[in-house]
Design brief:
The protein has 2 domains: 301 residues, Methylamine Dehydrogenase, Chain H; 79 residues, Immunoglobulin-like, CATH 2.60.40. The protein is mainly β.
């Protein structure tokens, strides 16, 4: 599982941020970090923070930034409560409902693989294609607006409804996934797709998992263990790193004020301020090309770096080795020793279901070409190793 090798590094206003109150985070192609803060846009090149506000950049719509995204061409889109502003590298241009936005209060911004920009607002969603804004609202978008945007491999746009469940747009029509389809809550906060196109939906009451056919298969209602009597798990964001580990941000401010971030590799691992997080009120997560996890909170920015799940598991259990990891078509198992002439090998999926079982001697090659991409666990005797299948 996870080792103690993770490093938590935190930055606040005292380190150059315009404000420690952060709302969103995005990673640019060059690895630099862009942040939505209470007092402007912040750019972090790894050593220095640069602030954009209405004084330094008069084209910015407002200093209170709610959402941020970096496009393939390098443009930075910043959402506010009074419209969206686009930074082209030197200046900002702002757009409002007068230009076609569904609402001026922006919740989330994402770029689709085809280059279109989608903007979730409190009153719907807007697609920016070429130079045209197209707004979608009622009845296609239920009351509560759109809090999050994600894109499926088949071209579908998945929208997190503030109150109405998951809204799926196939390019011509909208459909819904709600509590009637298995969601633990219709208040959606985030959506992540794993390598097998399983959907991990963060809601106000935990995480619901849907398979590649959009069938509900599992719920994780307590990824973060809260002190009694509060067990509610409002999830504010979910993201999946390059190793297939799911990261979930949880924050509750009801009977207690608690929160942090949890990582799922088949077992939940919980991190809090005592571990080095900037604070309990975690807003958004971004993962860079090094698998460093950038966590925004209301009291600062934290980077979690240095964990290597596969290496840690191999070191933790020397009874057998498994390679390659990640795998594509096959995995090889090499036993360090055997006691009864052979050993039973089992492969379990992320939900704990046995998908393969066989008895082997010292070494075996197992064909996994028919398995969906995703997280799996290989068990031999009392040992277990996590591996990822990619396509």
């Amino acid at each position: 599982m996870f080792t103690n090798a993770q490093t938590f590094t935190t930055w606040t206003a005292s380190d150059g941020l315009p404000s420690s109150n952060l709302r969103d985070v995005a990673v640019a192609a060059d690895g630099s970090i862009w942040l939505a803060t209470q007092l402007g846009v912040a750019h972090f090149d790894g050593s220095t923070f640069t602030t954009h506000n209405t004084t330094t950049h008069p084209g910015l719509a407002d200093n209170s930034i709610s959402a941020i995204a970096v496009m393939a061409n390098g443009d930075v889109w910043a959402g506010t409560d009074v419209g969206v502003s686009v930074f082209n590298g030197s200046s900002y241009t702002s757009y409002t409902t007068a230009d076609g936005l569904s609402d001026n209060q922006v919740n989330n911004i994402k770029q689709a693989p085809n280059g279109d920009v989608w903007i979730g607002t409190i009153n719907g969603v807007t697609r920016y294609s070429g130079s045209t804004f197209t707004a979608f609202g009622s009845p296609d978008i239920p009351f509560g607006g759109v809090t999050y945007i994600a894109f499926a491999a088949n071209g579908e746009v998945w929208l997190g409804g503030g109150l109405g469940g998951v809204i799926i747009y196939n390019g011509s029509a909208f459909s819904l996934l709600t509590t009637a389809d298995g969601l633990v809550s219709n208040k959606i906060r985030s959506i992540a797709f794993d390598a097998g196109q399983y959907k991990w939906v963060g809601t106000a009451k935990g995480i619901s998992v849907f398979d590649d056919a959009n069938i509900h298969i599992a719920d994780h209602t307590r990824p973060f263990i809260l002190p009694a009597p509060d067990t509610l798990n409002p999830v504010t964001d979910v993201a999946i790193d390059g190793q297939g580990v799911l990261w979930a941000a949880v924050y509750v401010d009801y009977l207690v004020t608690e929160g942090g971030i949890s990582a799922y590799d088949g077992t939940w691992h919980q991190y809090e301020t005592v571990d080095g997080l900037a604070g309990p009120n975690v807003r958004r997560i971004a993962i860079d090309d090094n698998d460093d996890v950038w966590v925004t909170t209301s009291t600062g920015l934290t980077r979690i770096s240095g964990y290597h799940v596969g290496i840690a598991e191999q070191a933790a259990d020397a009874s057998f080795t498994l390679f390659p990891n990640p795998a594509t078509d096959q995995v090889t198992i090499q036993l360090a020793s055997i006691t009864n002439g052979s050993e039973v090998v089992r492969i379990l999926d992320a939900q704990g279901r046995v998908v393969h079982s066989e008895r082997i001697n010292t070494r075996a090659v197992i064909d996994v070409s028919a398995f969906d991409a995703g997280i799996y666990f290989l068990q031999v005797g009392g040992g277990s190793k996590r591996f990822v299948i990619v396509r």
